[in-house]
Amino acid sequence: MTFGATVRAVTRSRLIPTRAALTLTPAAVRKVADITGRQKCEGLKISVKTRGCNGLTYVLDYCDYAAKFDEVVEQDGVKIFIDSKALMTLIGTEMDYSSNKLTSEFVFNNPNVKGTCGCGESFSV
Fold first, then answer.
1. Where are the beta strands (DSSP E) in 38-122?
2. What distance in Å separates the CA atoms of residue 59 and residue 49, rounded to the nearest whole number?
3. What does the alpha-carbon distance between residue 107 and residue 98 come to, in Å, rounded to a whole number?
4. Are strands 56-63 and 43-50 parallel, antiparallel or unpaired?
5. pTM for the whole structure
6. CA–CA distances in Å: residue 47 to residues 3, 12, 16, 123
7. What's the pLDDT score for residue 45?
């Protein structure tokens, strides 16, 4: 099963040193914990695929272990496995979870994005 995601280009006001390639908001931590608990998996894996009108899109899947070159981000008890091909597009990104009457999705607030399509599903760096 794969999940949908939206990408937003954001401007960074200043560089903040961080150890993790990706940070999660409390809402994202709660949702990842809920998903991984129900599916009995170790965490979620983020990868990129060439798709959409702007070039790349994030793909999230269940994951039980890190592949050879995967980056593992562990925050507040949840694990996110980042595919080596996706790592450079994710550095400095904040992963959020948004839910309203129409959609429930992970949102990537990414300072590296140069452009997005109208729906926000695909992006370019």
1. 43-50, 56-63, 71-75, 78-82, 93-99, 104-110, 115-116
2. 7
3. 7
4. antiparallel
5. 0.76
6. 12, 23, 24, 13
7. 92
